[in-house]
Amino acid sequence: MRVRTHLSLLAAAVFLPMIVGAGVAIKLLLDAERHAVLRGMQELARASVLAMDQELTAAIAAGQALSTSARLQQGDFGSFYVQSQAANAGSGRQTAVLQEDGQQLFNTAVPYGQPVAAPARGALQRVRAVFARQRPTVSNLIVGSSTHRYIISVELPLVLDDGRRVLLDQWFGISHLNSLLPRDVPAGWQVAVFDRDGATLARNGAWLAEIASRARPDLLAALRSGAVQADAADARGAPMTVALARSALSGWTAAIGVPSSELAATAARAVSLIAATLLCAVALALAGAILFARRLLAATEYLGAATEGMAEGWLPPPADLRITELNSLQQVLHAVSRRLQKAETGRRKHLAEVQAARSVAESQNRAKDEFLAMLGHELRNPLGAISSAIALIQMGASGPAAERAHQIIGRQSRHLAHLVDELLDANRVLSGKVVLALAPLELAAAVREAALTLQTRGATSEHHVELDLEPVWVNSDPTRLQQVIGNLIENAAKYTQAGGHIRVSTRRREDMAELVVADDGKGIEAELLPRVWDVFVQGKVANRSKGGLGIGLAVVKSLVEQQHGSVAVVSRGARQGSTFTIRLPLAPEAVAAVEAPAPEAAPLDGLRVLVVEDNQDLREMMCALLASRGCAVSCAADGHGGIALARNALPQIAFIDIDLPDISGHEVARALGEQGGIRLVAVTGYGQPDDVRRALAAGFDRHLKKPVRLEDLERAIGELDVVR
User: Fold this and answer.
1) Which domains does the chain show, CATH number per domain?
2) Predicted TM-score of the model (pTM)
3) Which of 81, 247, 322, 421 is spaced 20 to 30 A from 679 at the CA atom?
């Protein structure tokens, strides 16, 4: 089939459901509009009832106010007559007082003392019914005894001080009630109010002729059934729809009647415009479909020719196809070759990026291998020295040689512990798990302290260190600031030849404090400079003994950035020296806190100590160290053994490993805590903050990280103030 046929079928498939749906929608709109009119009628009926209820409520309130009059209670009807007239002034209401037989004692509608006619027929029965209810009652339509006109009465039963029962009436003429009906209603609508017996109380239009007339039978049946809507007929027999609303106060019913023909016409007018609009839309859509079919045929013929020409390497000149999408397709055809070229360029660029990423990965892998080699070298040196010293002792060396061997073992053990601590600390710093205690610090004083420490250790003993320090305060962690300064100066010393110069300066630059460490050493190669802050990356040093693990500068960068600072490095190349610049936020000047003196070592003679450690060598050494200080030491290799030993030995302090072969040290701590009287110290290789928190939560008083020295054990005993 041709495109025109397809479009015709498509139009039929679209418009047929649309027309059917439009018919259904119009029917629904008609129903909705009719319901809207009915809702408006219902609201008008409720408004009419509300207007009546408000007037009746006002009459009841006025009657209740008058019923409290002392003159009425004392039977002074003359004075009460004047009081009632004053209370009803301007309200359209009148007051009357009736005896139990229905005879009026007075009525404000006539002068006081003027005789009032005998009660109308049925008045006695109405009075008795009110006395029987003993509450205010709204009457139906009645004829007044004094005026002989139709009225509505609100009647309140009372008992006077002398014991007489009377009825206090607040009444008003039916014309007043009729004035309360809504006036702004369409001309063909009928508004009426009926009492409980179906008598007409009020009505719009010719109301005088309809007062007291009974509702027609069909409407009367709806009134008595309590319906809210009914179909009835008007006086000429024409069908009409009636909305009803009943008053809970009076039992009256308001009725709004609308001729059925007018109701249908109102709904039809509301949707006729919609139907006309829909028909116009269908006609315009058909015309647009025909026009589009013509344009589409012309455009497809052009694009077919262009596609054939593209296969041969040429394209016809661009033309306006008058359809945006097809014009876009035409542009795509003209741009295919350019896009293919761009795709090829992108492929080559992506390949270059992949090769660059591979180079980075290989570089990182080499850095890892170099780090492992450096770590092996750093560990083998102290381990070799320790092994040699132990062999010397085992050979029976004595005197200075033995003393020298012991010093080597102690120094190299501390060096091994320092390497392990450095690795663990670097892991915490680089992962952002350290908790910084920021405080105002004098940067120049921190530099002097770090330089003195390095000089004492011999790290800068072969160099000329120049300090150019301007007092400036920073907001930093004291320990971590010393670590940053020490790493930078030690790094400069490592890459500067003996006799070289290192210059450390501090100054205030804009709103930041600046620390600059410059040297005239071997400098940094251009290819290494961008990666100098990366972990495990370092330059080559002439003396391997001065090498490191390649994590110092990475730790510096992480610590500085965690303190909201920045790092930078400049080097003009090999043998041109390097300049490292650290910038930290300024802080207000503060007085440095005076360090508290270290606590003196507590005497240990006779102290009962329990050691629970599964490593035999470590257990024996700890026990030997504590015994050398005069402690009474008990040792156990597992948790259960330690718990059993504690029951007999009654230790005052226990050093417990966390990772035991049978149960965890935490369980041992809880068991000994139940025994009571024992201070507990965790001795473990797990030193992360979470490990410390778990140990303290299990009942430990202190946490020591392996390896521990005798000084650490003595300090823990002194801090816990163990009573002996």
Assistant:
1) 189-259 (3.30.450.20), 349-433 (1.10.287.130), 436-585 (3.30.565.10), 608-720 (3.40.50.2300)
2) 0.39
3) 421
